[in-house]
Batch of 2 targets.
Target 1
Amino acid sequence: MALSAAKPLIRRHTEIGIFLIGAILIVIFASTSDGRWANLYNIGTIMQVTATLGLMSLGVAIVIGTGEIDISVGSTFGMGALAYLWLAARVDPAIAAIAAIAVGAAIGYLNGLLITRTRTPSLIITLGTLMIFRGISIALTDGFSFSIPYAARKGWSYFLLGGGDLLGFNTALFWLIGAFAVLIMVLKTMPFGNRLLAVGGSAESAHSRGVRVDRIKLSAFVVCGILAAFAGALEAGKLGFADGSMGRLMELQSIASCVLGGCLLAGGRISLIGALMGAFVLSSIQSYLVVTGVQPQWFILILGVIVVAAAYGDKSLRQWAIKR
Amino acid sequence: MTKQQPLIQVKNLHLYFGSFHALKNVSVDFNAGELIGLVGDNGAGKTTLIRVLCGIHAPTKGQVFFDGKKVERFHPKLAIDQGIETIQQSVGLCDNLSIARNFYLGREPVKRVFGIPFLDLGKMRAKSSRIIRQFGLRENVSADDEVEMLSGGERQSIKIGRAVEFKNRVVIMDEPTNHLSVREREHVNELAVQLKEQGLLVIYITHDIFQVHKLADRIVIMENGEKVADANTDSMSAEALEDVIRQGGRMVEKREAV
């Protein structure tokens, strides 16, 4: 009986699953790594990786909310990084970051336009643009990498755009917190959020109530593009350099974060906090494998196993919760 | 009936879904202050016709006039802005949203803070639950509950409550009494008459000619995408109209030289 009291809670909070997984993994990681995982320096590194992956995942979650998917974010991330680095060596980093955001918005707009105008599934369109912008990145860098000269790695705007630490954490983390706060407010308390989730729940019904479905979807792709490119700029600010393969496979990690975090791929039900927790769990696994000396190639395999297991577990949990 | 300009005038309307000819040369006038029963079998084109009127489908050929003006663009938003409220049969509710959020979807009341629109959630909850309760929503269901959890009748009560709340000039009801109990059914039928008496145009779609004959001023019968009969209820009995439907509309050309 006590268990069935939890049903409404699970029904409303799809992210419960990932928090359970996260809690279990933290205990395991902390107790089996001899202090190499659970220390402030390592947690700081995990948070930095979480910050950029998390920003991407927030954008992907918004798109998933409309019932679509954006797998081009890995390339958008790379394009944002390159745009930032190329300009930051020449003008103020703040202007470079705005340019990176504009690049991301343009890619998102292109995705959204192709999907809503041609009525082609977003999976295939963004698979195409994933490859197109990866190709452009590689061509732009011509096999080398873009970097900011050490002399230019200074100043407030450089520091605030991933190039420095604040209170022990990379500044990217604070951008993530800001973006999360804004998006959760839009999603829960503004008409746009209501319509966005309605489109994901039933595009036909939303349309019949006068919602401009295509506009909502287009906006979601633009938001997603902006967040991915900005995440790329922050990552570039942290590293100071990037090559044409920057962000490769991050699209899969961000989608995995969303799904693990309780975002329903069919649309209409997303959890932003869950997506962030998903990003944190993935970053933690990665870090655990590194500090325990497991070869990094195992990461993707273990990631896959966890995604399959968590997706199955989550589905069973929800089905149980929906039963009256 | 005095001759007035029809509120909605449909002229030689054709609609194709791919190669399927869903509406064939339909012409019909709808007047303000009239309750019209739109009757026909499954697949007759009733729902398709009203989906043109409420902006979901754009016609392939032919014209629609609203208030004497030709309708150039079809979108539910435009129809709603013109004052056309529709109780749709299979669409209109998003399962993933709460009752209050569904109720106000597309026309959410907002409170502005520094010009930024925020949902007026308090008003959304209080008003939607007060209105829907009149149409059979259980007391223990909260306006924050998701529509997914509701029964067919309760879902219907949201759609009806919503149409009544936002009623403006036209209320279209597509099988409004489906899933409802006998008492709720009577309530909805009374409501249709009340709306008409308030000067609105009410278009009532049903299979049940006998039920709607009691309420309506005029019955329009559709069959295979065509209008096959259009008669005032005081000039034709329900039995005669049922005959028309049973004959697939074939008798009509002879009988109805109106």
Target 2
Amino acid sequence: MCCGICVDACAHAAQRCAGFLLYGVLHYLPDYNGLCRDPMARVVLKGVSKVFDNGYEAVANASFTVEDGELAVLVGPSGCGKSTMLRMLAGLERVTAGEISIGERLVNEVTPKNRDIAMVFQNYALYPHMTVFDNMAFGLKLRKYPKKEIESRVEQAAEVLGIKGILSRKPKQLSGGQQQRVAVGRAIVRKPQVFLFDEPLSNLDAKLRMQMRTEITKLHRRLQATMIYVTHDQVEAMTMGDKIVVMNDGQVQQIDTPLNLYNSPANVFVAGFIGSPSMNLIAGTCSGQDDARFESSALSVALPRNKLPDHAMELDIFLGFRPEHLYIRESADAPPHAITLATLKITLVEPLGHETVIYGNVEGTTIIARSKIPVPPAPGDILHLLVDPSRLHYFDANSGAAIGR
Amino acid sequence: MRRILLWSLLLCALLFYVLPIYVMVANGLKSADTVSLSTMWKLPVTVGLGGFGEAWRMLSPNLLNSFAMVIPAAVISSIIGALNGYVFSKWRFRGSEVLFALLLFGFFIPYQAILLPLVRFLQWIGLYGTLPGLVLTHIVYGISVTTLLFRNFYVAIPRAIVEAATVDGAGMLQAFWRIMLPLSLPAFAVTLIFQFTNIWNDFLFGITVVPNPQAQPVTIALNNLSGSFSVDWNVVMAGAVLAALPTAMVYLGLGRLFVRGLIAGAVKA
Amino acid sequence: MIGRTLGPRKQGLLLLLPSLVLTGIFVYGFVGTSFFFSLTNWRTLAVDLSLREPLWQTYADMLRMPRFQADLRNTFVFTVLFIGFSIGLGLTLAILLDRAIRGRGFFRSVFLFPYALSFIVTGVVWRWIFNPETGINLFFEILGINRVLTTVGIGPLAPGWTTDPSVVLSVNQALAAVIPGGNTFQVEWGVPVALIPVAIAATWQLSGFVMAMYLGGLSGIGQAVRDAARIDGASEFRLYRSIIIPMLWPITIATAIILLHVSLKIFDLVFAMSGVGPGFATDVPAIFVFEMMFKAARYNLGAAASMVMLVLSCLIIVPYLIRLVRKGE
């Protein structure tokens, strides 16, 4: 009983210290560079597919490149094939077709052990019967490193991660955040060419997740290592990735920087997936000669002709606009060139303090808006919405692809 | 290379497990004049059911005794176990864990330590040497393990279900009868199989509580058959098959439940 | 008005009452009675419940009996052999089947099959397999081993198996050197050769159970840990040696306790397979108790031996039950 309390208290203290230590250590620890590695590690996928024995195609013809030292995030809803992709990179799944190379070496037939990669798993996958030290040292021991070298590497990693005080504990005695750090430590002691992260934060609570997110980003900046990070959380993807690979249904949807994904989504899926709340997407058609109009069952919007791509005319399209690019006519924050979008009846209001999320209804179509209006409106109120026309997106309703950009 | 090693090891193991079964069946099917010590491993030249017929003639009364013993004993001990398991899992009170442990103790003791008083007691109440006496014995010493199995099963059912029934106005017994019992069918299947196998395969109680050969269960009769010099060897082997058949059928037919009971009774025990 | 009803505790107790009463009588009452019998002068058919003078004389007599000493030795040796064989074989089989291969379910069913049989059936069959006149020994002829050995001049192999009275690896001299008075043992402390076939038969029956336990444990080890080890660079062999087998340790302990419990009580198998054996080479306490109580009518002696069995069993059960109570509260 007494023991339990002590362990708990220690765990808490260690956790609080860890955050503090990390910030300090990352910036000032001089021999930190001992954990960096030398060789270049560019990861290239060419036409990679995976078809399972039961005929299910998890990944179809995926190609992308992760440059040396880059942090690439694979993001998509569950079942989109991102984890399978990572497991193929790790060598845990065989590639059905295509080529994977790591650091200019074709690794299709190379075993996980010889790929010079390390992986951090979703459930940490720590060895429950080994101490934290042994967990981190296992991979080095198998590679027959001298004892001294192993000790110094583990110590160093533990210092970086703020887990020096728990090296002799077993995983069961650690908090979720500490287990997470050990899992990361197990990867960094190996100094691999490439780090693979498989949804490593999904088992942590919201606060800790945010903290670990920044820690991993900092770790990446310091180690200058190539990292590939899988997540289903678009916020994680946007905040961490140098480059983001959006996947859905086994297909790569778009490969781009976070800002480009946000500003110019390549298709309806990416448009809806990135951003929260999601982009409003309204089905309709564009028509007209000098002054174009967008017409749908609910909306009729006069569009400035020069903002509209030519080939969007006379097509079935989706008109897209993000909630944060809508303005309430009565409030003063709208840009001068904003145009009238719709008049809607408010159905639900979510005041968040710094802003308000408003759900409204026009002729059965729901529109979501975000506003910084100081006094939020009430459900039932009528609202006139403006939109910034340069922030409008157009998608071909048949193919889903973006038009114009 | 690896495959070859794996498969040769598995086939060796298969041989070890199958050989005794082969000896039993193959020699049971031989006729009295062709069965001999020097041809033990050979397949029967002519398949005859003579051995089985003879074994059946000698063992059928005892097989019936076994059934008459095992069915009521397994059913009654399971029902009592269900009730106990219910109380121990869903109506815990101060000291109930201690009572449970005291009850469970009965499953683990070597029964030699109660044999003599048991026999005296059964003589005293007039059930010594009878099947009902044997059934009573198996029920009493089965309670602890059936309670364990049911308790482990019920622990996995959320307590909120019973609480909801209580809020709806059901009493302790009503909640058991209306809510828990309908959920317990898998547990009953597992427990009945477990008890059926255990009780059918019992030897110690059979030989000590029932000295009269006519009333003995089949395990004791088989042992007598095997020890007797006047019985042909093929008959003994056929008898072994007959005595093994009921539990073997249960195993082959309901293997999944059998394994579940095994693990439930063992891992948590 | 609220009617007077029993509280849940009383209701619960009421439901448990029949079982508690029966257990009170049939377990605790009878164990107490047996213990009492072991202290009395009751050693003939005529009941004599007067206490013995001195009180523990029956136990003292028993411990001096060569037969009982042999029984204790046999229990120890049998336990070691049986648990060693069963865990070794069961773990091996579980590891072999811990992969996607054709016929996995078939192998599992066959290996576990003997567990469904009675020890008597097992004993009856294995008794013939280890009969010196037939069974295994025929293979030495069939495979031509004996012909080869005879030409070499060693002579045919014909082990006596359960009829072999010899005791190998005797440690009596070592005991005499270490323990003062260690040379007063009336039996040879070592491995009775005749016990080995019995342990093999018991292994045949229970190793499938051990395999099932391990397979259950293996299915609880996530794929992620295996993947992590492979990425760390562990070979298949290393994965099992350094990760999986250590992770199965709790299963090993649980299984060993269950097997220990079986081996301390073993009765039917020995009874059907070899009986007391030559020079009590395969005699066990359970048979000793049975014969004293139901054949020799030496009731106090049988009761005393059963108390020794009980104490041995309690050494394993009681810690387990105490842990159970602690965990529950």
